[in-house]
C-alpha cells in the first residue's frame, strides 16, 4: 500500500531540505578552509608584539591577538597577584589600573595596551612598606581566603581617587558640592568586586579608615 500523499510530500520536503543543508555545510566548510588558508599564508597575522609598562618597567611580549591583559600578566609575566575569578567581567578579581584607571583585565585584550602604564598589586607597596590600603585591610581583617583581595585593594584605591576627582556614582545625589565618602558611595563604587567570603563590612571599614586618614 502506498503512503498517504501528505506523508509522501513531507518526506520529499525533508529530503530536499537535507540536500540543501548538506550543500550549505559543504560551502561553509570550504569558506572556513579558505579563511584558514589565508591566515596560514600570512605569517604572524594572528600574533603581535606588544610593549607594556608594568609597575614602572617596560615589558615586551609576543602574544596571540586574542590574549587578554589578565592572561599576559599572569601567564606571560608571572604576575600572579592579579586573580582570575570569573574571566567574564563579573567578579572584579582581575582589577588592575591602566593609565590610572581601574579596569577588569579579563575583558581587555593585551594588544590594545601598547605603551600603556599598567599597575598590578605587585606594584602597590611591598611587604616592608605596605600601601596604606594594604595595611588597612590587615588592620580591619578585610579578607578571609584572600582570593579577591588584590582586586579589592586595587579598586578601593581607585574609589578614593574617583571620589576626590568629583566623579559621581549612581548614588551621588548632590553634584554641586564635593562628594562625601559615605558608606553608600563606597558600597556602590565597590559593587563590581565580589567577595565570596563575605568580608564586605570589614572591607568597608578599611576603605573608610584610609579615606579619613587621607582627608
Ligand atoms: S576575572 Fe575579571 S571580572 Fe572576574
Ligand atoms: S576574602 Fe575570600 S573571596 Fe574575598
UniProtKB/TrEMBL annotation:
Transmembrane segments: none annotated. Residues 1-33 form the signal peptide. One of its GO terms (molecular function) is 2 iron, 2 sulfur cluster binding. SUPFAM superfamilies: 2Fe-2S ferredoxin-like, CO dehydrogenase ISP C-domain like. GO terms for cellular component: periplasmic space. Residues 48-124 form the 2Fe-2S ferredoxin-type domain. InterPro entries: 2Fe-2S-bd, 2Fe-2S-bd_dom_sf, 2Fe-2S_ferredoxin-like_sf, 2Fe-2S_ferredoxin-type, 2Fe2S_fd_BS, Aldehyde_Oxdr_Iron-Sulfur, Beta-grasp_dom_sf, TAT_signal. Keywords: 2Fe-2S, Iron, Iron-sulfur, Metal-binding, Oxidoreductase, Signal. This is Ferredoxin. It comes from Puniceibacterium antarcticum.
